[in-house]
Amino acid sequence: MNAKILLVDDSRFARLKIEEVLRRCGVCVDFVHAEDGAQGAARLAEDQFDLVLCDINMPEADGFEFLRRKSADSGLADVPVIMLTAEEEIEIKLQCLEAGASDYLLKPFHEQELVARARIHLQIKELRDSLHTKNQALERLVRVDALTAVANRLHLSECLRHEFSRGQRHDVPFSLAILDVDHFKAVNDRFGHLVGDQVLREIALRLTNAVRAHDVVARYGGEEFALLTPRTRTEESTLIVERCRRLVADTPFAGGDEPLQITVSAGLSSFPADGAKTEDELLRQADEALYEAKRAGRDRLVSWEEHSRA
């Protein structure tokens, strides 16, 4: 199996014996050794393992100390641990399980039992990892717009809720812009929806390239996009949105036989500068500012501050 096992035991002979048995039976070919619980916990934190076999009785830091340190790191919760003990008392076995062990094996162990238990826990780990990967993929599907591969409206709403809450608690500024593709219906009518879809994908890519790593680009709906800029005041957000607008306007888009000149209009609202008391009010401000940008001739950015002064 393509697995990596950590062996924690103060006896080198015991570690080599376990390794020899598991290698011979094809359970694993990659082993790392540790001489006590502290060293084992350090090895576990440094690398990725599929299974740990750990002795209980070790002079410096015992198996329970290893389990304590492992439990303190939530990122290691899915790594199974089989405890090795010569103690037959049920209390010791229960202590192991209550401390976070997945299983235990009595010394001296039978080789076939060692192999069987190792295989079972490696299989469980593999299934758990596979489920985690599938859940991550599902989470991405739920939060990413299928056409443009940027965040969808659900993810934007959650990010906006988080930023608004943080802004209210800690007075942290942020801004929200809504960008609308100018005359997009004409693009669909003249060149077809396939070209229209490609234009939307290209706009999403340009917006993503124009913003910072922690900014959120989302498809707000139809030909509308949203840009959330955390920890950013109005002046800096204005520069970011203007950069996005220019990246769309300055380079023509492919449109079959002829290049397309595409522009976007944008409305910007900032917290706390523009006084919004709720997320919906912030969205309304950005939307009204966008409408003003459209009314004023398109291909421009209007902030709520500018709109409210007009």
The CATH class assignment of the largest domain is: Alpha Beta
Which fold does the CATH topology of the largest domain refer to? Alpha-Beta Plaits
- What general form does the structure show? elongated
What portion of residues belong to β-strands?
15-25%
Mean pLDDT: 93
CATH architecture of the largest domain: 2-Layer Sandwich
Write down the domain tally: 2
What's the CATH superfamily of the largest domain, by name?
Reverse transcriptase/Diguanylate cyclase domain
Largest beta-sheet details: 5 strands, parallel
- Which value, in Å, is the CA radius of gyration? 29 Å
Give the total of beta strands.
10
Could you give the distance between the termini?
70 Å
Number of contiguous helices: 11
Written account of the structure:
- It is elongated, with a radius of gyration of 29 Å.
- Strand 1, helix 1 and strand 2 form a beta-alpha-beta unit.
- It has 310 residues and is of the alpha/beta class.
- 51% of the residues lie in helices and 18% in strands.
List the helices and strands and how they pair.
Layout: E1 4-8, H1 12-24, E2 30-34, H2 37-46, E3 51-55, H3 63-71, E4 81-85, H4 90-98, E5 103-106, H5 111-143, H6 153-170, E6 174-181, H7 184-191, H8 193-210, E7 216-221, E8 224-230, H9 234-250, E9 264-271, H10 279-295, E10 301-303, H11 304-309
Parallel strand pairs: 1-2, 1-3, 3-4, 4-5, 9-10
Antiparallel strand pairs: 6-8, 6-9, 7-8
Helix pairs in contact: 2-3, 7-8, 8-9
Condensed summary:
The chain has 310 residues and is of the alpha/beta class.
